[in-house]
Amino acid sequence: MSNSLNWSNDPLLFDPGPTPMNDWLTANKLLSKDTLTSKEGKRYALVNKNTLSLNLYPILVRKIDFIREKESDRILSRFPYIVLTEEEKELIKKEILLIAETARDYFYRAINSKISAWRTRLNTYLERGAMPYPLYRCACKLLNVPLMINEIESQFFESARGKRYAIPTKISKQLAYLCGVINGDGHLHKHYLRVTDETKEHIKLISDLLGNVFSDTGEIFKSGNAWNVELRSSSAVRLINFLTDHSIHGPKYQSLREPVLFKHLGEPYRSLYWRGAMDADGSFKHHISFGSASEMYVSDFNTYLHSIGIKSKIGKIKDYAFCLTIPAFYRLKFINLIGVDNPKKKSDMLQLLKLVRCQFKGLKQENLIEGLYFKLLKLSSLSLLGIGKYLTKIRGNKTIKARSKELGIAANLYSDYENESRTLTLKTLQKILQVNSKTLMIILTKQPNLKYQCSTSEQVKLPIIITSKIIEIMSLFEPTKTYVKLLHNDSKMTSEIEQLFGLHVEHGRINSRVVLKFCKTFGVYPKPTVDELKFDSILDYLK
Fold first, then answer.
1. Cα 242 to the center of its chain, rounded Å
2. What predicted TM-score, i.e. pTM, was given to this entire model?
3. Which of 77, 146, 308, 317 could tie 321 with a disulfide, CB 3.0–4.6 Å?
């Protein structure tokens, strides 16, 4: 009998032996061992990437379930009861004796019953229309039919007491989001899971999602100042534990990390998972942030954000928590790529969006010359210094008096321009050089020491040739009424900005009227609106 298929040698079951629940092999542990591409991984069939199908049997049935702790233990009542179709009932009836023999062998040393006793049990389950999952495994083995049906979205089960529920057989967007919420605001217990939040609206949303995924909305109740939804389903607990490594009935922070399975599947499952986590532990008040007592969990989020082009910073809150913050420059991108569904946090997000005065959307083509040069003549009252040597050069052998008379400019004034004791406007310079706008800009690019100012403002340098680096720098600017704010105050980029404009950046600000006017004249900086939000609500994915 020891050579027959039984629970201790069943190749479909994950765990090598009867292990405690928080030591079970989960998706994180299995995928971290690279078993997905190994022979074992194929046997385990964690998930089919094309159909996103899960093999529920080794997730819902664990070897420790077969261990009798005391004589009165009801082993079979520990398992989910799979709901049978009429076709399955007929097939089982025809081979009931052989299935009973297979069951006797499978439950070896767990339930020591004769074949006749197993046949009696099978008849009882056929009348009920549902049987313990391991018995169904025995039937499938004998009948040589698949244990998992890829075409269905979920499998219906009953508890030992007859309560019916569903367990998804495929990874869905709603399930990914729920995993994020439960890892943040949820707790797993042996027979139920609970999610807690300050608002009833979000708890109602979670209840609706639970109903969609598990065909059970759970029970909503208030405890103190917090709202809760509780789903009593040990099978749902085991599924969430398998997907996320969330501890069952114990501290969760040591086990928190981005689920490797969602990381393996990619989008949209990763972003929806992190949306759920943000809806639980994130904030949109004053700035976008995410906090957790787990440094690894915050680091995982930081790594993911960097992979999708969003920079973030990690800091420590006191001695027990870590906080990730999103610079203002990346707010709109974060909201569009991650999204938010928690009603209260969505309201905070919309208020935060109003605080972002403007973000760079490109250059004003009408103020450029052939898309190659900034037309500095568009900057009203702009004057420059540092062109004196060039004026002297092009004057040639003519006297200042003769040259100034040709141009209709007072001799003393023209002398000041050459001596650089006085600034001159660009329009005056164009008159002196008698060239068009493009030629003027080309001439200016060849003068190494030009400085610009408006009235009595600080003298600065200005770019003339349009480059990708200048566009990148302008994308980091947020023009206000009196200064230019840096949306991402990176030390390397700050140094490049100071070199480009020949000024000093103080506390993430450029206090220069010339640079401010430059930004507003050549850059498109609209104020973000609700119309620019492009993410779908999780409710859009409900069946």
1. 21
2. 0.77
3. 317
